[in-house]
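Lab meeting, item 3. Inverse folding demo.
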């Protein structure tokens, strides 16, 4: 499964690189040291920066939520034009078709690289539910559960497979 995971990260490298950038930015804002900032490497840390665990619930949640949210917003905005083009246009302009394919691939790569690493998701849940106050538990709960499940979805390449299925459905409609 690790080889398939690494292959999907290399196929969707723009999203992996941008997710790492957001992750490293959150680490710098929270003043958490980054041990290894290589973005694309051949192990389970591909598309993630190696860092120490966040000491507080707010930082742990931000490390999981901010990159996922930013990648999702970018993927949504970038996919609007290609999806509309696919649904409502004819494919007689080769240049416009090529630009939309590249834009959709970029949006696809952002979407499948949204979720946090499983260890970061475990750390987030531990910090929120063991060390967080009642307000953090209430406010962070829906997104934390979604990100926790999404970490496993990405680890086992289900997000990539679902993305391919969604792409096929859009094309076939």
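The presenter then showed the designed sequence:
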């Amino acid at each position: 499964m690790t080889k398939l995971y690494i292959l999907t990260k290399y196929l969707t490298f723009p999203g992996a690189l941008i997710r790492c950038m957001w992750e490293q930015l959150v680490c710098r804002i929270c003043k958490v040291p980054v041990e290894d900032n290589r973005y694309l490497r051949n192990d389970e840390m591909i598309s993630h920066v190696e860092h120490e665990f966040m000491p507080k619930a707010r930082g742990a949640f931000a490390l999981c939520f901010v990159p996922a949210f930013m990648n999702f917003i970018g993927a949504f905005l970038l996919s609007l034009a290609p999806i509309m083009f696919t649904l409502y246009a004819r494919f007689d302009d080769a240049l416009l078709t090529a630009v939309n394919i590249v834009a959709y691939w970029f949006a696809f790569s952002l979407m499948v690289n949204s979720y946090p690493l499983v260890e970061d998701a475990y750390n987030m849940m531990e910090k929120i539910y063991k060390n967080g106050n009642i307000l953090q538990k209430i406010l962070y709960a829906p997104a934390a559960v979604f990100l926790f499940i999404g970490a496993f979805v990405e680890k086992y390449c289900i997000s990539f497979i679902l993305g391919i299925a969604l792409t096929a459905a859009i094309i076939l409609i």
